[in-house]
Protein backbone atom coordinates (compact mmCIF):
# COMPACT_ATOMS: atom_id res chain seq x y z
CA UNK A 1 0.00 0.00 0.00
CA UNK A 2 1.10 3.57 -0.59
CA UNK A 3 1.84 5.57 2.53
CA UNK A 4 0.43 8.90 3.59
CA UNK A 5 -3.12 8.42 2.37
CA UNK A 6 -5.95 8.93 4.80
CA UNK A 7 -9.24 7.08 4.91
CA UNK A 8 -12.10 9.45 4.16
CA UNK A 9 -15.55 9.01 5.64
CA UNK A 10 -17.30 7.32 2.69
CA UNK A 11 -15.79 4.04 3.90
CA UNK A 12 -18.25 4.09 6.80
CA UNK A 13 -21.06 4.53 4.28
CA UNK A 14 -19.79 1.59 2.24
CA UNK A 15 -20.03 -0.64 5.29
CA UNK A 16 -23.50 0.67 6.16
CA UNK A 17 -24.82 -0.01 2.66
CA UNK A 18 -23.22 -3.47 2.62
CA UNK A 19 -25.07 -4.12 5.87
CA UNK A 20 -28.31 -3.17 4.15
CA UNK A 21 -27.61 -5.42 1.17
CA UNK A 22 -26.79 -8.51 3.19
CA UNK A 23 -28.63 -7.98 6.51
CA UNK A 24 -31.96 -6.44 5.47
CA UNK A 25 -33.91 -9.01 3.51
CA UNK A 26 -37.62 -8.84 4.31
CA UNK A 27 -40.27 -7.11 2.16
CA UNK A 28 -40.60 -4.32 4.72
CA UNK A 29 -37.74 -2.16 5.94
CA UNK A 30 -37.93 -3.75 9.41
CA UNK A 31 -34.27 -3.90 10.35
CA UNK A 32 -34.76 -5.96 13.48
CA UNK A 33 -35.81 -9.14 11.69
CA UNK A 34 -32.43 -9.35 10.00
CA UNK A 35 -30.36 -9.03 13.16
CA UNK A 36 -28.17 -11.81 14.45
CA UNK A 37 -29.98 -13.58 17.28
CA UNK A 38 -29.91 -11.53 20.51
CA UNK A 39 -27.89 -8.88 18.70
CA UNK A 40 -24.91 -11.21 18.61
CA UNK A 41 -24.10 -14.69 17.39
CA UNK A 42 -26.39 -17.64 17.75
CA UNK A 43 -29.03 -19.27 15.60
CA UNK A 44 -27.53 -21.65 13.07
CA UNK A 45 -24.19 -23.31 12.41
CA UNK A 46 -22.78 -20.03 11.15
CA UNK A 47 -23.93 -18.28 14.30
CA UNK A 48 -26.49 -15.98 12.62
CA UNK A 49 -30.21 -15.86 12.10
CA UNK A 50 -30.48 -16.36 8.34
CA UNK A 51 -34.12 -17.46 8.13
CA UNK A 52 -35.68 -16.17 4.92
CA UNK A 53 -32.42 -14.90 3.50
CA UNK A 54 -31.22 -15.56 -0.01
CA UNK A 55 -28.16 -17.88 0.09
CA UNK A 56 -25.89 -15.05 -1.07
CA UNK A 57 -27.05 -12.89 1.84
CA UNK A 58 -26.55 -15.75 4.28
CA UNK A 59 -23.05 -16.32 2.91
CA UNK A 60 -22.02 -12.67 3.02
CA UNK A 61 -23.60 -11.61 6.31
CA UNK A 62 -20.74 -12.81 8.55
CA UNK A 63 -18.19 -11.63 5.99
CA UNK A 64 -19.49 -8.06 6.02
CA UNK A 65 -19.90 -8.15 9.78
CA UNK A 66 -16.23 -9.05 10.10
CA UNK A 67 -15.35 -6.10 7.84
CA UNK A 68 -17.24 -3.80 10.20
CA UNK A 69 -15.62 -5.36 13.24
CA UNK A 70 -12.15 -4.84 11.77
CA UNK A 71 -12.75 -1.28 10.58
CA UNK A 72 -14.58 0.09 13.61
CA UNK A 73 -12.45 -1.79 16.12
CA UNK A 74 -9.28 -0.41 14.55
CA UNK A 75 -10.65 3.13 14.64
CA UNK A 76 -11.48 2.82 18.34
CA UNK A 77 -8.13 1.24 19.19
CA UNK A 78 -5.83 3.50 17.19
CA UNK A 79 -7.62 6.81 16.53
CA UNK A 80 -10.55 7.51 18.85
CA UNK A 81 -11.48 10.19 19.94
CA UNK A 82 -9.94 11.85 16.90
CA UNK A 83 -12.11 12.16 13.83
CA UNK A 84 -10.46 9.70 11.45
CA UNK A 85 -7.93 6.90 11.33
CA UNK A 86 -4.93 7.02 9.00
CA UNK A 87 -4.91 3.37 7.92
CA UNK A 88 -1.24 3.08 7.01
CA UNK A 89 0.34 4.77 10.03
CA UNK A 90 -2.35 3.63 12.46
CA UNK A 91 -2.72 7.11 13.97
CA UNK A 92 -5.66 9.45 14.38
CA UNK A 93 -6.34 12.73 12.58
CA UNK A 94 -8.81 15.54 13.30
CA UNK A 95 -10.60 16.83 10.22
CA UNK A 96 -13.95 18.13 11.51
CA UNK A 97 -13.29 19.66 14.91
CA UNK A 98 -12.06 16.67 16.87
CA UNK A 99 -15.32 15.34 18.28
CA UNK A 100 -15.03 11.71 17.20
CA UNK A 101 -16.69 12.11 13.83
CA UNK A 102 -16.22 8.49 12.76
CA UNK A 103 -17.81 7.24 15.97
CA UNK A 104 -20.97 9.29 15.50
CA UNK A 105 -21.23 8.30 11.86
CA UNK A 106 -20.78 4.61 12.70
CA UNK A 107 -23.36 4.13 15.45
CA UNK A 108 -26.28 3.20 13.20
CA UNK A 109 -24.05 0.76 11.32
CA UNK A 110 -23.18 -0.95 14.60
CA UNK A 111 -26.86 -1.16 15.51
CA UNK A 112 -28.08 -2.55 12.19
CA UNK A 113 -25.24 -5.08 12.07
CA UNK A 114 -26.18 -6.36 15.52
CA UNK A 115 -23.24 -4.98 17.52
CA UNK A 116 -25.64 -3.88 20.24
CA UNK A 117 -23.27 -4.12 23.19
CA UNK A 118 -20.70 -2.02 21.33
CA UNK A 119 -23.44 0.45 20.36
CA UNK A 120 -24.48 0.93 23.97
CA UNK A 121 -20.90 1.34 25.19
CA UNK A 122 -20.03 4.01 22.66
CA UNK A 123 -23.45 5.65 22.81
CA UNK A 124 -22.88 6.16 26.53
CA UNK A 125 -19.60 7.94 25.80
CA UNK A 126 -21.28 10.20 23.24
CA UNK A 127 -24.10 11.14 25.60
CA UNK A 128 -21.75 11.84 28.51
CA UNK A 129 -18.75 13.48 26.83
CA UNK A 130 -19.55 14.87 23.39
CA UNK A 131 -19.68 18.66 23.00
CA UNK A 132 -19.96 20.88 19.96
CA UNK A 133 -18.64 23.95 21.79
CA UNK A 134 -15.60 23.91 19.52
CA UNK A 135 -13.86 26.92 17.98
CA UNK A 136 -13.77 25.39 14.52
CA UNK A 137 -15.30 26.37 11.18
CA UNK A 138 -16.83 23.23 9.75
CA UNK A 139 -18.53 22.16 6.55
CA UNK A 140 -22.27 22.51 7.14
CA UNK A 141 -22.91 19.81 4.55
CA UNK A 142 -20.59 17.20 6.05
CA UNK A 143 -21.57 18.04 9.62
CA UNK A 144 -25.26 17.73 8.77
CA UNK A 145 -25.15 14.40 6.96
CA UNK A 146 -22.64 12.74 9.28
CA UNK A 147 -22.90 14.24 12.75
CA UNK A 148 -26.51 15.48 12.82
CA UNK A 149 -27.72 12.52 10.79
CA UNK A 150 -25.67 10.14 12.91
CA UNK A 151 -27.12 11.49 16.15
CA UNK A 152 -30.70 11.30 14.88
CA UNK A 153 -30.17 7.76 13.57
CA UNK A 154 -28.66 6.66 16.88
CA UNK A 155 -31.61 8.20 18.74
CA UNK A 156 -34.04 6.15 16.65
CA UNK A 157 -32.03 2.96 17.17
CA UNK A 158 -33.03 3.25 20.83
CA UNK A 159 -36.45 4.85 20.44
CA UNK A 160 -37.67 2.26 17.92
CA UNK A 161 -36.36 -0.64 19.98
CA UNK A 162 -33.80 -1.69 17.39
CA UNK A 163 -31.18 -1.63 20.14
CA UNK A 164 -32.63 -2.64 23.53
CA UNK A 165 -31.84 -0.24 26.37
CA UNK A 166 -30.00 -2.03 29.16
CA UNK A 167 -29.66 0.45 32.05
CA UNK A 168 -26.56 -1.24 33.47
CA UNK A 169 -24.78 -0.56 30.15
CA UNK A 170 -26.42 2.68 29.05
CA UNK A 171 -29.55 4.15 30.59
CA UNK A 172 -30.47 6.29 27.60
CA UNK A 173 -32.47 9.42 28.38
CA UNK A 174 -32.64 11.29 25.09
CA UNK A 175 -29.12 12.66 25.01
CA UNK A 176 -28.69 12.09 21.27
CA UNK A 177 -31.69 14.28 20.55
CA UNK A 178 -30.44 17.05 22.84
CA UNK A 179 -27.06 16.96 21.11
CA UNK A 180 -28.78 17.05 17.72
CA UNK A 181 -30.75 20.16 18.69
CA UNK A 182 -27.60 21.84 20.01
CA UNK A 183 -25.68 21.04 16.83
CA UNK A 184 -28.49 22.16 14.51
CA UNK A 185 -28.80 25.46 16.38
CA UNK A 186 -25.09 26.05 15.84
CA UNK A 187 -25.50 25.40 12.10
CA UNK A 188 -28.66 27.46 11.58
CA UNK A 189 -26.86 30.79 10.87
CA UNK A 190 -25.75 29.29 7.54
CA UNK A 191 -29.26 29.95 6.20
CA UNK A 192 -29.14 33.68 7.00
CA UNK A 193 -28.90 34.98 3.42
CA UNK A 194 -31.28 37.10 1.29
CA UNK A 195 -32.05 34.09 -0.90
CA UNK A 196 -32.14 31.39 1.77
CA UNK A 197 -29.30 29.68 -0.10
CA UNK A 198 -26.96 28.57 2.66
CA UNK A 199 -23.32 29.29 3.32
CA UNK A 200 -20.96 26.34 3.23
CA UNK A 201 -19.15 26.88 6.55
CA UNK A 202 -20.06 27.93 10.10
CA UNK A 203 -17.98 28.24 13.26
CA UNK A 204 -19.46 25.87 15.83
CA UNK A 205 -18.65 28.08 18.83
CA UNK A 206 -19.28 31.60 17.56
CA UNK A 207 -21.91 30.52 15.01
CA UNK A 208 -20.29 32.99 12.60
CA UNK A 209 -20.47 32.36 8.87
CA UNK A 210 -17.54 32.52 6.47
CA UNK A 211 -19.15 35.39 4.58
CA UNK A 212 -16.16 35.96 2.34
CA UNK A 213 -17.08 32.73 0.57
CA UNK A 214 -20.16 33.93 -1.28
CA UNK A 215 -20.83 30.83 -3.33
CA UNK A 216 -21.95 27.35 -2.35
CA UNK A 217 -22.09 24.19 -4.37
CA UNK A 218 -25.51 22.83 -5.14
CA UNK A 219 -25.12 19.66 -3.09
CA UNK A 220 -24.11 21.65 0.01
CA UNK A 221 -27.27 23.73 -0.17
CA UNK A 222 -29.76 20.97 -0.95
CA UNK A 223 -28.50 18.19 1.29
CA UNK A 224 -29.89 19.18 4.66
CA UNK A 225 -33.60 18.70 4.11
CA UNK A 226 -34.01 15.19 5.51
CA UNK A 227 -32.04 15.71 8.72
CA UNK A 228 -33.62 19.10 9.41
CA UNK A 229 -37.11 17.78 8.63
CA UNK A 230 -36.70 14.84 11.00
CA UNK A 231 -35.46 17.17 13.73
CA UNK A 232 -38.45 19.47 13.27
CA UNK A 233 -40.92 16.60 13.29
CA UNK A 234 -39.61 15.08 16.54
CA UNK A 235 -39.08 18.38 18.40
CA UNK A 236 -42.11 20.25 17.08
CA UNK A 237 -39.88 23.22 16.18
CA UNK A 238 -40.52 24.03 12.52
CA UNK A 239 -37.54 26.35 12.08
CA UNK A 240 -35.16 23.59 11.00
CA UNK A 241 -37.34 22.16 8.24
CA UNK A 242 -38.47 25.62 7.16
CA UNK A 243 -34.90 26.86 6.62
CA UNK A 244 -33.70 23.72 4.84
CA UNK A 245 -36.79 23.61 2.64
CA UNK A 246 -36.38 27.26 1.67
CA UNK A 247 -32.81 26.55 0.58
CA UNK A 248 -33.82 23.47 -1.41
CA UNK A 249 -36.68 25.27 -3.13
CA UNK A 250 -34.44 28.25 -3.96
CA UNK A 251 -32.07 25.94 -5.81
CA UNK A 252 -34.85 24.40 -7.85
CA UNK A 253 -36.36 27.80 -8.63
CA UNK A 254 -33.00 28.94 -10.01
CA UNK A 255 -32.82 26.10 -12.57
CA UNK A 256 -32.70 27.00 -16.24
CA UNK A 257 -36.21 27.63 -17.54
CA UNK A 258 -35.62 25.73 -20.79
CA UNK A 259 -33.54 22.68 -19.87
CA UNK A 260 -34.65 22.57 -16.20
CA UNK A 261 -31.06 21.68 -15.27
CA UNK A 262 -29.22 23.12 -12.28
CA UNK A 263 -25.60 24.25 -12.26
CA UNK A 264 -23.07 23.17 -9.67
CA UNK A 265 -22.21 26.45 -7.87
CA UNK A 266 -24.53 29.32 -6.96
CA UNK A 267 -24.14 32.76 -5.33
CA UNK A 268 -25.62 32.74 -1.84
CA UNK A 269 -26.89 36.35 -1.97
CA UNK A 270 -28.07 36.72 -5.56
CA UNK A 271 -29.11 33.21 -6.52
CA UNK A 272 -27.13 33.56 -9.75
CA UNK A 273 -25.28 30.49 -10.95
CA UNK A 274 -21.50 30.74 -10.76
CA UNK A 275 -20.84 27.57 -12.73
CA UNK A 276 -23.23 26.18 -15.31
CA UNK A 277 -22.01 22.60 -15.63
CA UNK A 278 -24.79 20.16 -14.79
CA UNK A 279 -24.44 16.48 -13.94
CA UNK A 280 -25.38 13.97 -11.26
CA UNK A 281 -21.79 13.90 -10.04
CA UNK A 282 -19.86 15.92 -7.50
CA UNK A 283 -21.23 19.29 -6.36
CA UNK A 284 -24.79 18.40 -7.44
CA UNK A 285 -25.45 14.71 -6.72
CA UNK A 286 -27.11 14.62 -3.33
CA UNK A 287 -29.61 17.42 -3.92
CA UNK A 288 -31.35 15.10 -6.40
CA UNK A 289 -31.11 12.27 -3.89
CA UNK A 290 -32.71 14.41 -1.20
CA UNK A 291 -35.62 15.44 -3.43
CA UNK A 292 -36.82 11.84 -3.80
CA UNK A 293 -35.80 10.58 -0.36
CA UNK A 294 -37.44 13.56 1.34
CA UNK A 295 -40.63 12.75 -0.54
CA UNK A 296 -40.35 9.09 0.46
CA UNK A 297 -39.91 10.14 4.08
CA UNK A 298 -42.42 12.97 4.42
CA UNK A 299 -44.80 12.51 1.50
CA UNK A 300 -44.30 16.13 0.44
CA UNK A 301 -45.66 16.41 -3.10
CA UNK A 302 -43.36 19.34 -3.86
CA UNK A 303 -40.31 17.17 -3.26
CA UNK A 304 -41.75 14.60 -5.67
CA UNK A 305 -42.34 17.23 -8.34
CA UNK A 306 -38.82 18.60 -7.95
CA UNK A 307 -37.35 15.12 -8.33
CA UNK A 308 -39.49 14.19 -11.32
CA UNK A 309 -38.68 17.35 -13.25
CA UNK A 310 -34.99 17.10 -12.42
CA UNK A 311 -34.88 13.41 -13.36
CA UNK A 312 -36.58 14.16 -16.69
CA UNK A 313 -33.98 16.83 -17.44
CA UNK A 314 -31.13 14.51 -16.47
CA UNK A 315 -32.50 11.68 -18.60
CA UNK A 316 -32.80 14.04 -21.56
CA UNK A 317 -29.48 15.88 -21.40
CA UNK A 318 -27.08 14.10 -19.03
CA UNK A 319 -27.83 10.38 -19.34
CA UNK A 320 -26.53 9.04 -22.65
CA UNK A 321 -26.96 5.35 -23.40
CA UNK A 322 -26.94 4.54 -19.72
CA UNK A 323 -23.84 6.64 -19.00
CA UNK A 324 -24.10 9.65 -16.71
CA UNK A 325 -22.06 12.51 -18.14
CA UNK A 326 -22.17 16.33 -17.85
CA UNK A 327 -23.96 19.00 -19.86
CA UNK A 328 -24.41 22.76 -19.98
CA UNK A 329 -27.37 23.74 -17.83
CA UNK A 330 -28.27 26.42 -20.38
CA UNK A 331 -28.13 24.52 -23.67
CA UNK A 332 -28.01 20.85 -22.69
CA UNK A 333 -24.84 20.49 -24.77
CA UNK A 334 -22.60 17.65 -23.63
CA UNK A 335 -19.46 18.93 -21.88
CA UNK A 336 -17.63 15.75 -20.90
CA UNK A 337 -17.19 12.17 -22.01
CA UNK A 338 -16.29 10.86 -18.56
CA UNK A 339 -18.34 9.67 -15.62
CA UNK A 340 -17.78 10.16 -11.90
CA UNK A 341 -18.05 7.41 -9.33
CA UNK A 342 -20.35 9.76 -7.39
CA UNK A 343 -22.90 9.52 -10.22
CA UNK A 344 -23.49 5.88 -9.34
CA UNK A 345 -26.17 6.87 -6.82
CA UNK A 346 -28.57 7.93 -9.58
CA UNK A 347 -29.85 4.49 -10.65
CA UNK A 348 -30.98 3.90 -7.07
CA UNK A 349 -32.86 7.20 -7.08
CA UNK A 350 -34.51 6.25 -10.35
CA UNK A 351 -35.71 3.07 -8.64
CA UNK A 352 -37.26 5.10 -5.83
CA UNK A 353 -38.94 7.31 -8.43
CA UNK A 354 -40.40 4.33 -10.29
CA UNK A 355 -38.11 4.58 -13.33
CA UNK A 356 -36.93 0.98 -13.19
CA UNK A 357 -35.99 0.56 -16.85
CA UNK A 358 -33.73 3.62 -16.81
CA UNK A 359 -32.24 2.51 -13.48
CA UNK A 360 -31.27 -0.91 -14.83
CA UNK A 361 -29.89 0.65 -18.01
CA UNK A 362 -27.60 2.98 -16.05
CA UNK A 363 -26.47 0.46 -13.45
CA UNK A 364 -24.91 -2.05 -15.85
CA UNK A 365 -22.31 0.29 -17.42
CA UNK A 366 -21.17 1.27 -13.93
CA UNK A 367 -20.71 -2.34 -12.93
CA UNK A 368 -18.95 -3.07 -16.20
CA UNK A 369 -16.41 -0.37 -15.40
CA UNK A 370 -16.06 -1.78 -11.89
CA UNK A 371 -15.32 -5.23 -13.34
CA UNK A 372 -12.82 -3.72 -15.76
CA UNK A 373 -10.89 -1.75 -13.13
CA UNK A 374 -11.38 -4.02 -10.12
CA UNK A 375 -12.89 -1.09 -8.21
CA UNK A 376 -14.44 2.19 -9.38
CA UNK A 377 -11.97 5.06 -9.83
CA UNK A 378 -13.18 8.57 -9.03
CA UNK A 379 -13.57 9.49 -12.70
CA UNK A 380 -13.34 7.20 -15.71
CA UNK A 381 -13.17 8.18 -19.36
CA UNK A 382 -15.51 6.69 -21.95
CA UNK A 383 -13.11 7.52 -24.76
CA UNK A 384 -9.94 5.96 -23.37
CA UNK A 385 -11.57 3.35 -21.15
CA UNK A 386 -9.16 4.35 -18.38
CA UNK A 387 -9.34 6.38 -15.18
CA UNK A 388 -9.13 10.09 -15.84
CA UNK A 389 -5.91 11.91 -15.03
CA UNK A 390 -5.53 12.65 -11.30
CA UNK A 391 -8.70 10.64 -10.55
CA UNK A 392 -7.30 7.12 -10.34
CA UNK A 393 -8.15 6.27 -6.75
CA UNK A 394 -11.14 4.48 -5.27
CA UNK A 395 -11.81 6.24 -1.97
CA UNK A 396 -14.51 4.02 -0.55
CA UNK A 397 -17.61 5.51 -2.10
CA UNK A 398 -20.88 3.62 -1.47
CA UNK A 399 -23.06 4.97 -4.28
CA UNK A 400 -22.98 1.97 -6.63
CA UNK A 401 -23.59 -0.44 -3.77
CA UNK A 402 -26.63 1.53 -2.65
CA UNK A 403 -28.07 1.49 -6.17
CA UNK A 404 -27.65 -2.28 -6.31
CA UNK A 405 -29.47 -2.51 -2.99
CA UNK A 406 -32.37 -0.47 -4.37
CA UNK A 407 -32.49 -2.58 -7.53
CA UNK A 408 -32.56 -5.81 -5.53
CA UNK A 409 -35.33 -4.52 -3.28
CA UNK A 410 -37.38 -3.53 -6.31
CA UNK A 411 -36.82 -6.63 -8.45
CA UNK A 412 -35.74 -9.42 -6.06
CA UNK A 413 -33.31 -10.41 -8.80
CA UNK A 414 -30.38 -12.15 -7.05
CA UNK A 415 -28.09 -10.86 -9.80
CA UNK A 416 -27.86 -7.64 -7.80
CA UNK A 417 -26.90 -9.55 -4.66
CA UNK A 418 -24.14 -11.23 -6.65
CA UNK A 419 -22.96 -7.84 -7.87
CA UNK A 420 -22.95 -6.60 -4.28
CA UNK A 421 -20.91 -9.63 -3.26
CA UNK A 422 -18.38 -8.85 -5.98
CA UNK A 423 -18.04 -5.32 -4.67
CA UNK A 424 -17.60 -6.44 -1.07
CA UNK A 425 -14.87 -8.89 -2.06
CA UNK A 426 -13.15 -6.28 -4.22
CA UNK A 427 -13.12 -3.71 -1.42
CA UNK A 428 -11.94 -6.13 1.22
CA UNK A 429 -8.89 -7.48 -0.60
CA UNK A 430 -6.73 -4.55 -1.78
CA UNK A 431 -8.08 -1.97 0.68
CA UNK A 432 -7.65 -3.98 3.87
CA UNK A 433 -4.68 -2.73 5.87
CA UNK A 434 -3.55 -3.96 9.25
CA UNK A 435 -5.44 -1.05 10.80
CA UNK A 436 -8.38 -0.12 8.57
CA UNK A 437 -9.60 0.17 4.98
CA UNK A 438 -7.34 2.33 2.84
CA UNK A 439 -8.09 4.13 -0.36
CA UNK A 440 -7.14 1.98 -3.35
CA UNK A 441 -4.59 3.40 -5.75
CA UNK A 442 -4.46 3.31 -9.52
CA UNK A 443 -1.73 0.67 -9.50
CA UNK A 444 -4.17 -1.85 -8.01
CA UNK A 445 -6.30 -1.65 -11.15
CA UNK A 446 -3.58 -3.02 -13.36
CA UNK A 447 -1.35 -5.21 -11.17
From TrEMBL:
A GO BP term, please? Answer: endoplasmic reticulum mannose trimming
PANTHER family membership: ER DEGRADATION-ENHANCING ALPHA-MANNOSIDASE-LIKE PROTEIN 1, ER DEGRADATION-ENHANCING ALPHA-MANNOSIDASE-LIKE PROTEIN 2
* Primary location recorded for the protein, binned into one broad class: endoplasmic reticulum
Q: What is its EC number?
A: 3.2.1.-
Pfam families reported for this sequence: Glyco_hydro_47
Record keyword Secreted present:
no
UniProt family annotation: Belongs to the glycosyl hydrolase 47 family.
Residues annotated as the enzyme's active site:
142 (proton donor), 285, 378 (proton donor), 399
- Subcellular locations according to the entry: Endoplasmic reticulum
This chain belongs to the protein called: alpha-1,2-Mannosidase
Q: Lineage of this protein's species?
A: Eukaryota, Discoba, Euglenozoa, Kinetoplastea, Metakinetoplastina
Q: Which domain of life is it from?
A: Eukaryota
- InterPro entries, alphabetized: 6hp_glycosidase-like_sf, EDEM1/2/3, Glyco_hydro_47, Seven-hairpin_glycosidases
**Transmembrane feature ranges:** none
Q: Which GO terms describe its cellular component?
A: endoplasmic reticulum quality control compartment; membrane
Organism source for this protein?
Answer: Trypanosoma brucei gambiense (strain MHOM/CI/86/DAL972)
**EC top class, as a word:** hydrolase
Ordered alphabetically, the record's keywords are: Endoplasmic reticulum, Glycoprotein, Glycosidase, Hydrolase, Signal
Signal sequence span per UniProt? 1-32
A molecular function annotated in GO for this UniProt entry is: mannosyl-oligosaccharide 1,2-alpha-mannosidase activity
Amino acid sequence: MKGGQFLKMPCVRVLLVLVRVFFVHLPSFAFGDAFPVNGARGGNSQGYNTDGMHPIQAEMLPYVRDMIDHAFGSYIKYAFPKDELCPVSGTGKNTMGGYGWTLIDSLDTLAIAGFHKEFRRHAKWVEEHLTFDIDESVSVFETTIRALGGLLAAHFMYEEGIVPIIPSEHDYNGGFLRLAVDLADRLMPCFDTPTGISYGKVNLRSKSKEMWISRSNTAEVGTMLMEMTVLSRITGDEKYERAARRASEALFAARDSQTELMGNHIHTHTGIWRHGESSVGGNIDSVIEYFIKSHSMSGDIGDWERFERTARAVNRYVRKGGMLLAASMYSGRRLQTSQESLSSFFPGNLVLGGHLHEAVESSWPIHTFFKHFGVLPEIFSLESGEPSWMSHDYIGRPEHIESLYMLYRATRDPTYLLMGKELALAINLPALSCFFFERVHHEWFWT
